């Protein structure tokens, strides 16, 4: 099956990982992306043991570890006092328990590793606007008037995927009535943020962790906001605006927000889980298939699991059966994580009082609550 030509729409992390995994199995790959250049956008992301198993199997584990920060503990703090109400070791404990490290990675650093491994140039400036499928192949139509053909198309083109419209028809993104401030700050000496750090409070919360070997602290600060509906990684706002949104919080929070040179802000969206991911020659991957809110830290990890599964299924079974098997293996798991990510936002933002006390008690069982996500070995169920 390796002689098939596969077009991957989207040169993000999911798309490039898919291209690398497919090329390793002998497929001819073309990657298309709407961006005119692949610039350093985005901030941090977390990679768990389930995602790192995919990266290690592709031979990229050392390169990713070199640009990442190993997160040695997880801490949950009270929003105002800063008191730690739950903590647990990560680092060696996590790796022994879940079979891989838990890393904080700058998205651009991870993207550079994948671009180097892809060892080719994605076709840039190609915004896919339509997909034309026949029993014999697929034609992609781009906004610049050009077209491209393939035997199989993988839509890794994000939340507002054109390939998704071909597979399922139009559907609406679901607005979470929440936006987030994101940024990076240099890690000060003796920084309190050396692991995965949460500050939870009424109606909002903040997550921070080191990236780039501990040189930088990545933060994401979530606020309820039914008015801010712009979903753009390039949208900026003054750092003072983020700090003001957390007025009255512990100084560790407000200082972190105020020290950012540049702060991004975007609205949070997902979509309802799909009943179908694929047609005979076209399928979806990552956010195009199962966009999820970031409250489980699994968006990137699930795209990596998708990539490994799709490559194995296409290689072993061919287009139609391979895409069916890929969907069967992935749909239930990603649906559960999608819906769980929605629920986590409410859990993280309860007011002080009985609801917070109950939440804090549940957190004592956190490792077991998330074990089914992090210990998952995507390779164990794949066609050989």
From TrEMBL:
Q: Does the keyword Nucleotidyltransferase apply?
A: no
In this chain the FAD-binding domain maps to 5-337
Q: Which UniProt keywords apply?
A: FAD, Flavoprotein, Monooxygenase, Oxidoreductase
- Signal peptide start and end residues: none
Domain of life, per lineage: Bacteria
Q: Which GO terms describe its molecular function?
A: FAD binding; monooxygenase activity
Q: How is this protein named in the record?
A: FAD-binding domain-containing protein
Q: Tell me the organism.
A: Actinoplanes awajinensis subsp. mycoplanecinus
Its lineage opens with: Bacteria, Bacillati, Actinomycetota, Actinomycetes, Micromonosporales
């Amino acid at each position: 099956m390796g002689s098939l030509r596969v077009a991957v729409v989207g040169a993000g992390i999911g798309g490039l990982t898919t291209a690398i995994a497919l090329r390793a199995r002998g497929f001819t790959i073309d990657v298309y992306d709407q961006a005119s250049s692949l610039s350093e956008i985005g901030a941090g992301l977390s990679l768990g043991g389930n995602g790192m198993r995919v990266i290690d199997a592709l031979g990229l584990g050392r390169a990713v570890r070199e640009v990442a920060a190993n997160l040695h503990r997880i801490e949950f703090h009270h929003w105002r006092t800063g008191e730690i109400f739950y903590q647990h070791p990560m680092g060696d404990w996590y790796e022994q328990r879940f079979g891989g490290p838990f890393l904080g990675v700058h998205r651009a650093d991870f993207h550079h590793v994948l671009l180097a491994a892809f060892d080719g140039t994605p076709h840039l400036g190609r915004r896919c606007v339509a997909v034309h499928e026949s029993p014999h192949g697929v034609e992609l139509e781009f906004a610049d008037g050009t077209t491209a053909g393939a035997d199989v198309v993988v839509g890794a083109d994000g939340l507002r995927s054109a390939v998704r419209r071909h597979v399922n028809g139009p559907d609406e993104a679901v607005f979470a009535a929440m936006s987030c401030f994101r940024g990076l700050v240099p890690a000060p000496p003796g920084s309190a943020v050396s692991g995965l750090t949460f500050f939870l409070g009424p109606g909002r919360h903040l997550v921070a962790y080191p990236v780039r070997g501990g040189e930088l602290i990545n933060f994401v600060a979530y606020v309820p906001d039914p008015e801010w509906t712009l979903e753009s990684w390039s949208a900026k706002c003054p750092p003072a605006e983020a700090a003001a949104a957390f007025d009255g919080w512990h100084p560790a929070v407000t200082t972190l927000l105020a020290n950012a040179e540049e702060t991004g802000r975007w609205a949070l969206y997902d979509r309802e889980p799909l009943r179908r991911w694929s047609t005979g020659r076209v399928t979806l991957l990552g956010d195009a298939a199962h966009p999820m809110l970031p409250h489980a830290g699994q968006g990137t990890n699930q795209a990596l699991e998708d990539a490994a599964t799709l490559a194995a299924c296409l290689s072993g079974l061919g287009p139609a059966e391979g895409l069916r098997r890929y969907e069967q293996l992935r749909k239930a798991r990603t649906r559960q994580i999608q819906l769980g990510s929605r629920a986590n936002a409410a859990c993280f933002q309860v007011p002080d009082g009985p609801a917070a006390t109950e939440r804090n008690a549940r957190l004592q069982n956190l490792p077991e609550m998330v074990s089914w996500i992090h210990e998952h070995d995507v390779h164990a169920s794949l066609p050989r």
